Amino acid sequence: MVDEKSVSASEPLDLIRLCLDEQIFVKLRGNREMTGKLHAYDSHCNIVLGDATETIYYLESGSEDVKSRKEKSELVFVRGDSVMSIADASNIGKTNA
Amino acid sequence: MSAVPTSASTSNFLSDITNSSVIVKLNNGFEYHGVLSSIDGFMNIVLENSIEMVGSKEIRKYNELFVRGNNVMYIASQ
Fold this sequence. Notes:
- The complex is a heterodimer.
- By secondary structure, chain A is mainly beta.
- Chain A is built from two helices and five strands; from the N terminus they run H-H-E-E-E-E-E.
- Chain A has helices at residues 4-8, 12-18, and strands at 23-28, 32-41, 47-59, 66-78, 83-88.
- Chain A starts with a helix and ends in a 9-residue tail after the last strand.
- By secondary structure, chain B is mainly beta.
- Chain B has a single domain, classed as SH3 type barrels, CATH 2.30.30.100.
- Helices cover 13% and strands 55% of the residues of chain B.
- Chain B has one helix at residues 7-16; strands at 21-26, 30-39, 45-54, 57-67, 72-77.
- The A-B interface holds A 5-6, 9-16, 29, 45, 80-81, 83-88, 91-97 and B 15, 18, 26, 28, 30, 37-40, 44-46, 48-51, 60-68, 70-71.
- Strand 5 of chain A pairs antiparallel with strand 4 of chain B.
């Protein structure tokens, strides 16, 4: 049975496919974020990022402020189960609403 | 009219609310307010024009955002 919705509605993973070879922004478990160029992905959200920068947010004891540090890697494979969300890095902060 | 909780009706709910305004809450406290543009059987979700919130604090805005299904606690239609 073909209804209009299923024709127009694409799969969520299609959004990731459109981000191939683009800079993406990935939120990870453990207060981490990563940006880099998306080289490959699969249905588990395993991803391979090139020229990646990982930002790790943490609290230092005795301080209320959230601090962050960055770690860079040339090529990194991120296991899918630590991925929370993925967005095109160039579109963050912009909405049409 | 009370909906019978069958697996058919839960997936009907999900297909009914695509392209409408939703709130997606994740297990780790993050909440996303946006328009549900697609969803699959893993509950992977794409939201359009979404706002990332923690409590009542706005963190970020996304034009398009993919959320991995395992993090989803609920999807509420508005």
